[in-house]
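Narrative of activities, Objective 1.

The group set out to show that a structural description can be obtained from nothing but a protein's sequence at a throughput compatible with the screening campaign. Below is one input-output pair from the validation batch, recorded exactly as produced.
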Amino acid sequence: MSGMKFDIAMTDELLATTRAVRKRLDLSRPVPREIINECLELAIQAPTGGNTQGWRWVIVEDADKKKQLADLYRETAKDYLPAAAKQAEKRGDPQDARVFTSAMYLAEHMEEVPVHVIPCVMRPPEGIPAQSPGLYGSIFPAVWSFQLALRARGLGSTLTSLHLRKEKEAAALLGIPGDVMQVALLPVAYTLGTDFKRAKRAPLDQIVHWNQW
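Output recorded for this entry:
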C-alpha cells in the first residue's frame, strides 16, 4: 500500500506564509467556537515531553474579560513597544520597525479582537525549573500547530507574551488555578485577505553549521 502523498507545494506555502498577523486581523467578523475547537483538536496532536499532554487552553470571548486582559497587556506594552520601535528605526531596520508599529496597533485594539486564546501548561513538580526546555517544548509545538490550522482556514493570530508580566492578575480574572502556567496570549480573528508572503530571513549559509560551528 502506497503512503499518503501530501501536496508539497500547498504544505510549503502554509508553513512559509503563516505570519504574525496584527493589523490585518478582521475586528468585525465573529469567530465561531466550532472553528476554534477544530483547530485545537489538530493542535493537541502535537508531541509533548514524556507524553505528559499537560496543555490547557483558556478561550476568552467575553467582552468585559477581553477588555481587562487588553488593559493588562497595555500596561506592560506602553513603555516597551514605543522604545523598541525607536531602536529599530535607529538601527535602520525597516522590517523590525514595522513589526513594533503593528504591535502597538494591536495593543490599542486588543479588546476588539473576537477571540483571545491563552495556551497554558501544568506547572512542573517542585524541584523542576519552571523555565525548563522540556516544559515549553510540551506546549509550543501545539501552539504552532494551532496557528497553522487557523491559517489554513482563513484566520490569523500572533503569539504575544507581554501580558505574562501580569500573569497573576490575568489568572485571578479568568479563574486559572495556581498549578497552571500561562505561556502566551494569541489574539485570533479572520484575516483581511489571505495573500501573506514569505518574510525576509538570513540565508542558510549564515546561520547553519554542519558537523561543527
